[in-house]
Structures are given as structure tokens and as C-alpha cells.
């Protein structure tokens, strides 16, 4: 087969097509976003969900129905999806379910650097850890095979350097035969009431024991014989850094990071004078080996932070604990010059607001000259955090608290914050600003349910942000802050002064996406018109009847 | 390992075409029959922040990232990024700064990325014809003329500066 230069994300998309994935879903998040976009471009059935929890549930349903499903998200997305994930480990699946978690050690574009290998241990699920785009392609086939063989969801852990590095990838000549979905009832297997969940938990642990035995002989792990003085145990992209840093060492490269092939690793460690674990993030492998009584050296604590590279691996091997030279400090990102949010931040600053912020481009409002963001924690958190501040702060501070949240983030998990606001209103009311630029801008302009267009920009149902707020009885105003900056500042001051629950939709398209949005919307309008026309011709009941 | 791998870092600011130039270079190296890896951090690149891209090619490339201070070539598109990225270059490595090709000489100022690639090409063991194929493959047809000219201008400057002959790797 022809070799192609692909990113890890593109390699997963290609593998998804070649393994007959019936449905791919997820929520955009760097560095995972391009997987579903590429899968859609390859002709796969790819869609954005409102958030990762819903995506995982849709994928689980598809796999209950006997289909093969792919669900993608960034590492923090798995926190959102954790609720269904843990119990999906009990129910298992009928088809295949591969859940991609794209971790971001070093936080190139994230709010934390949690190590999602912990999730595999906590949920009791198998996890594969590819090192580069070729392995991402190859391991994806293995993930589908493992998922079908053990009837379990499989976690597929990528990292920024696996997702976004490009390398040559050879694809398989023969794709896997797709499955034919069909519902087979299995009430004790899928209805997790305690009476069914108790045996399901035991069944899961039995599957994991069986899978651990499989790992003891599986070719997912590769052992390279080298020097007896140094043995390196490693996984993911670290395996490549380590191979370059110490080409003469013996290597145990782990492909299946959970469950670990403990006995093989015991033999490997016993065969070398020094056995060093090279892993990014938490000492997950090192802790597991030491708990099993295997004498390995873990990296020093200073290497828990940030990503590893060849230079840092050399330091670990040299037991060099000296201060590392600082990374080059380049120019930080900032709001685009023509971003419609500038007047919003100017007004927030002018009114000396206490701003509960959220995740998106507008997090950059924390930068100079505005410094108009006081909290940023998690998707959707602006509303709850703002309400909590309102509840406890003295009146002169409480009335200055504002929650700001983007359109995609609002759809993701802001809506439940609205319910909280209506149900437990602060005494002085509250003000929410939805920064609606009509797209998921930060991750590279992805559609969401509020745009009324699908992942591939085709017309579909549209969620109205103001409609939702008004349905909950919230005072709602729509304004273009860019066209009317003074009007926006006045409106905000008025709403802050009134002891009301109010929501301002600050609406103007993202400057980077505006031209594309016009084009997509024109095409979507044409589709809607054609559908309405066809509906009328066949005598269908109009929507407003 | 390092003696068989060529390490190039492209640096600049979001919107300058760093990623596009790195795609072209990686494609040219693939067309020339090398193993290639390329790494960069996306996500913030459209917000005007610093962008760097690592391109490594040779018989066999392992890590996708160039070890710090081991770049053979550092190609910088923004004056503000030159000093910031200089520590990434190995001692004796080649720096191609934005003023290597005067902006005024370009048909289209936005072709600086391709002009500097042209300069870089004079140092590399990749035939010019292959490089130009990669440039054309990466760009819309209406941009071909301006970018081929930019490429040639950069390449000619590198040739006349004489540095290329010294820097040529065996």
C-alpha cells in the first residue's frame, strides 16, 4: 500500500473507515478535534454531540445495537463522560465501542494535564496507547478487535504529540468486514439495577483477568533486547523519545497500558541491572510495577510536569536533577484584532465586574489590556461559579458578578446552570452573557446544535439560546456588541443594577468564521427551502400548525 | 542517530504560514524518499501567538520532536521570534531570518514562507524539482506563479551567499 503523511488524528479517522465504524461522535477539543472531521471527509458517518457525555451515550447505544462506534474527546471531556463510562464497563457492548481520549501533557491547549490512564484503572477498561500515527492506525484495528472479543468499551489514549504529529502511514489493503446492527434483548446485561449490576461487576473483573492473561503473550507489547545494564519500560510517544535518547538500551514498549502484562514485565526487569520507567504524566506504570513488587526506577517528581522529549528523557536516564532551562517564551495568543468580544471585555472592565469565565476563545479576555476574567475552571462552570459568588459575597460585590460563556460551551453544559439559577436565584439576581459567535471557535470553527448545521455544515435542527432562556422565564436580550459597543455597556449596567435573572446574548459571528458561515448558511437555507417545498407538496403538516 | 536525521524548525506567528511551509517541506522530503516526522502545537495558531513546527527527515526518524538545541536549520518568519527561538539551533546550525529575502522583492508579501523555504532548499539534499512539485501541490493554482518566484528568489539568495555550499550535508 501507498504510504501517506498523516497526523495521528487523520490516521485514526482512516482506521475508523477501514474498520467499518458505523458511527463516530464526540465533542470538539484540542487535540482530538480533527478525528471526526477527517472521518466525515472520508465518507464516514460523523457527528458532533452537545457534549462528551451525550456522545458516549450515543456511541454506547450504537454498540448495544451491534454496530461499531467511535467516540472522541479531549482528556477533560472524559470527566464529563465518566458517568456512563464506568457503568458501560459493567454492561459491556455487543458491537464495538472505541473511546478516544486525547491527553495534553504540558497543556498546550488545556486547563489541566490530568493523566487519563488513571481512568482505565478506575473504570476497569482496557486501554491502548499508540506512539505515532502508524501505531494509531494499527492499534485502532486492535481496539475494535479487543472490544468485540471481550464485549467491552476500549479506551484509546492519544496525546498531543500523537494526535498532531505527522508521519508516514501505510494503511491496510483489506478493510474489516462491517457488522450488521440488530437489536438483541439482554435485560440482565444492560439494565444496571443492583441485582444485575452485582454480577456484572464480577463479570467485568473476570474479563480483565482474562485480558491480562492475553497481554502476557500479546504482540501489542514489544521487547527489544539491548544492553543488560539498562532496561526501559515505556508507552506511547515516550517510547520514541527513549529509543532516540538511549539506542543501546533494552526496551519493553507497552501497547496495552491496562491491564498491564505484569509477569512479562517482572521477567524483563529481572533481566537488567537498572530498570527505568519512562512515562509522561503520573507514574502510572511505575506505581503498578512497584505495587507488584517489581524493582523499577520511576522518573523524579520534576518530570511529572509537562511533556517529555528526548532531552528530558536523557536527563531522567542520567539522574540529572539540575534545573531545566526555561522553554522559549514566545508571543502568547490573544483575541483577534477584529474579534466581536472586544467591546464586551471593555464594558466588563469599565464596570469593574467580577467575571466568572468559561472555556473558549474568550478565556483570552484574561490577557492585557482587559484582564477581565476572574475564574476559568471547566466547561459550563461560569454559571454555577457565578451563582455561588452571588450567594455569599456582600451586596456591593455580589451585584458586580457576571457569568460569561460561549455559545458552544453554553450548549455543552451551560443549560443546566440556567436551571440552577432559576431554581436557586441569588437575592440580587444574576447576569449571564452568552458570547454567541455562531461557532465553536477555539477548536477551529466546529458546528454545534446552536448553529443549526451538522458537522459537515448541512442544515439540521437548531437550538435557540434565547428560546431556552425565555422558556425558563429568564429576562433575555439580544445585542450585537461590536455594532453597538456603547449600547452594550449601557445594557450591561442596567441589568447589573436590576435584581433580576437576566441573560444577554452578545451575538456576532466569529471574524475568522464569518465568511464560511455565510456560505454554509446559504447552502443550508436552500436545503431547508427545498425540504419545506417537498413537505408542502406531500401534504405534510407545517411545523407551526 | 542525529547524524542521519536532518532537523528543521520553522517559526513565526499565527497567520504567517508556518504550518503551510512545514507541510510543504515535509511533503518534499516524503517525495524525495525520506522517512519524515513533523510536530507542532495547534490550537492557538490562529490567535496570533508564536508557532513553531519541527520537521525531521532521514533514513529513520524516531521522536517527532527535535531535541532542544539540536536543530540543524532554524527558519524564522517573524523578526520578533528570532531571538526567542535561537536557543533551539545547534552550535554551527543555520539560521534563516525573515530579512534573508527582502520583502520588497516578492510579488506577494505573503509568500515569505515559501521564499524562505527556497533559501532552505539550497542547503538540503532534496532536488529543486521535487521541492517545486510540493509547493504546487500545497497551493491553489492562482498562487503558483507568485510562490514559484518567491521560492526561486530565496534559493538564488542562498546560492549567492555561498553559505549553502558550506552548510550542505553529506
Please give a structural write-up:
Chain A is built from 20 helices and 18 strands. In chain A, helix 3 (52-64) runs parallel beside helix 4 (75-91). By secondary structure, chain A is of the alpha/beta class. Chain A folds into three domains: 3-182 and 190-215, Rossmann fold (3-Layer(aba) Sandwich); 222-317, Rossmann fold (3-Layer(aba) Sandwich); 342-520, Rossmann fold (3-Layer(aba) Sandwich). The longest helix of chain A is centred in the last third of the chain and has 24 residues, at 514-537. The N and C termini of chain A lie far apart (57 Å). In chain A, the strands form four sheets. In chain A, strands 3-2-4-5-7-6-12 form a seven-stranded mixed sheet, sandwiched between helices. Chain A has a five-stranded parallel sheet with strand order 14-15-16-18-17, with helices on both faces. Chain A has a four-stranded mixed sheet with strand order 9-11-10-13, sandwiched between helices. In chain A, 52% of the residues are buried. Chain B has 170 residues and is α/β, with parallel strands linked by helices. Chain B has a single domain, classed as Pyruvate-ferredoxin Oxidoreductase, domain 3, CATH 3.40.920. Helices cover 36% and strands 22% of the residues of chain B. Chain B contains six helices and five strands, in the order E-H-E-E-E-H-E-H-H-H-H. The interface between A and B is large, with 40 and 36 residues. Strand 8 of chain A pairs antiparallel with strand 2 of chain B.
Amino acid at each position: 500500500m501507498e504510504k501517506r503523511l498523516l497526523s495521528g488524528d487523520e490516521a485514526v479517522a482512516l482506521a475508523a473507515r477501514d474498520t467499518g465504524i458505523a458511527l463516530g461522535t464526540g465533542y470538539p477539543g484540542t487535540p482530538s478535534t480533527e478525528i471526526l472531521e477527517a472521518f466525515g471527509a472520508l465518507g464516514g458517518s460523523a457527528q458532533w454531540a452537545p457534549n462528551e457525555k451525550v456522545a458516549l451515550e450515543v456511541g454506547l447505544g450504537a454498540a448495544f445495537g451491534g454496530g461499531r462506534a467511535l467516540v472522541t474527546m479531549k482528556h477533560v471531556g472524559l470527566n464529563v463522560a465518566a458517568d456512563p463510562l464506568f457503568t458501560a464497563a459493567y454492561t459491556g457492548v455487543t458491537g464495538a465501542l472505541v473511546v478516544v481520549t486525547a491527553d495534553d501533557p504540558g497543556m498546550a491547549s488545556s486547563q489541566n494535564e490530568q493523566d487519563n490512564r488513571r481512568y482505565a484503572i478506575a473504570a476497569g477498561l482496557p486501554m491502548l496507547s499508540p506512539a505515532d500515527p502508524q501505531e494509531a492506525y494499527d492499534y485502532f484495528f486492535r481496539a475494535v478487535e479487543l472490544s468485540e472479543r471481550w464485549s467491552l468499551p476500549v479506551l484509546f489514549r492519544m496525546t498531543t504529540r500523537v494526535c498532531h504529529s505527522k508521519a508516514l502511514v501505510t494503511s491496510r489493503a483489506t478493510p474489516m468486514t462491517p457488522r450488521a446492527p440488530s437489536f438483541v434483548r439482554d435485560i440482565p446485561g444492560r439494565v444496571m439495577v443492583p441485582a444485575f449490576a452485582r454480577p456484572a461487576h464480577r463479570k467485568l473483573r473476570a474479563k480483565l483477568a482474562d485480558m491480562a492473561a492475553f497481554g502476557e503473550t500479546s504482540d501489542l507489547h514489544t521487547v527489544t533486547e539491548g544492553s543488560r545494564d539498562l532496561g526501559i519500560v515505556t508507552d506511547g510517544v515516550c517510547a520514541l523519545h527513549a529509543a532516540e535518547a538511549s539506542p543501546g538500551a533494552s526496551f519493553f514498549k507497552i501497547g496495552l497500558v491496562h491491564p498491564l502484562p505484569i509477569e512479562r514485565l517482572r521477567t524483563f526487569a529481572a533481566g537488567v541491572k537498572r530498570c527505568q520507567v519512562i512515562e509522561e504524566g503520573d507514574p502510572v506504570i511505575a506505581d503498578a510495577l512497584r505495587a507488584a513488587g517489581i524493582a523499577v526506577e520511576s522518573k523524579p517528581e520534576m518530570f511529572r510536569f509537562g511533556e517529555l522529549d528526548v532531552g528530558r528523557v536523557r536527563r531522567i536516564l542520567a539522574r540529572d536533577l539540575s534545573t531545566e532551562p526555561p522553554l522559549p517564551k514566545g508571543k502568547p495568543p490573544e483575541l483577534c484584532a477584529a474579534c466581536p468580544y472586544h467591546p464586551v471585555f471593555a464594558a466588563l472592565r469599565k464596570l469593574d465586574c467580577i467575571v466568572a469565565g468559561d472555556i473558549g476563545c474568550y478565556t483570552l479576555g484574561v490577557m492585557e489590556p482587559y484582564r477581565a476574567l476572574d475564574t476559568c475552571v471547566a466547561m459550563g462552570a461560569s454559571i454555577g461559579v457565578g451563582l455561588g459568588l452571588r450567594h455569599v459575597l456582600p451586596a456591593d460585590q455580589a451585584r458586580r458578578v457576571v457569568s460569561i460563556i460561549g455559545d458552544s460551551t453554553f450548549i455543552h453544559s451551560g443549560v443546566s446552570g440556567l436551571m440552577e439559577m432559576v431554581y436557586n436565584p441569588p437575592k440580587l439576581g444574576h447576569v449571564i452573557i452568552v458570547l454567541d459567535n455562531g461557532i465553536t471557535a477555539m477548536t477551529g470553527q466546529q458546528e454545534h446544535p446552536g448553529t443549526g448545521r451538522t458537522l459537515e455544515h448541512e442544515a439540521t435542527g437548531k437550538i435557540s439560546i434565547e428560546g431556552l432562556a425565555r422558556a425558563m422565564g429568564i429576562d433575555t436580550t439580544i445585542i450585537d456588541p461590536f455594532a453597538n459597543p456603547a449600547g452594550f455597556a449601557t445594557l450591561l449596567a442596567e441589568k447589573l443594577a436590576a435584581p433580576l435573572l437576566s441573560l444577554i446574548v452578545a451575538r456576532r459571528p466569529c471574524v475568522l468564521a464569518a465568511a464560511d458561515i455565510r456560505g454554509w448558511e446559504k447552502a443550508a437555507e436552500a436545503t431547508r427551502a427545498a425540504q419545506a417545498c417537498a413537505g408542502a407538496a406531500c401534504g405534510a403538516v407545517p411545523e407551526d400548525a | 542517530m542525529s547524524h542521519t536525521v536532518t532537523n528543521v524548525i520553522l517559526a513565526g506567528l499565527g497567520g504567517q504560514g508556518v504550518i503551510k511551509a512545514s507541510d510543504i517541506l515535509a511533503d518534499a522530503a516524503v517525495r524525495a524518499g525520506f522517512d519524515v516526522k513533523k510536530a507542532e502545537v495547534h490550537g492557538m495558531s490562529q490567535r496570533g501567538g508564536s508557532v513553531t513546527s519541527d520537521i525531521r527527515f532521514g533514513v529513520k526518524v524516531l521522536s517527532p520532536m527535535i531535541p532542544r538545541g539540536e536543530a540543524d536549520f532554524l527558519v524564522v518568519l517573524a523578526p520578533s521570534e528570532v531571538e526567542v527561538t535561537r536557543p533551539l539551533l545547534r552550535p554551527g546550525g543555520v539560521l534563516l531570518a525573515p530579512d534573508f529575502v527582502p520583502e520588497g522583492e516578492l510579488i506577494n508579501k505573503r509568500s515569505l514562507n515559501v521564499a524562505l523555504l527556497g533559501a532552505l532548499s539550497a542547503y538540503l539534499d532534496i532536488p529543486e524539482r521535487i521541492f517545486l512539485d510540493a509547493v504546487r501541490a500545497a497551493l491553489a493554482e492562482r498562487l503558483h506563479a507568485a510562490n514559484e518566484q518567491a521560492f526561486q528568489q530565496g534559493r538564488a539568495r542562498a546560492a549567492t551567499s555561498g553559505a549553502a555550499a558550506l552548510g550542505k550535508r553529506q
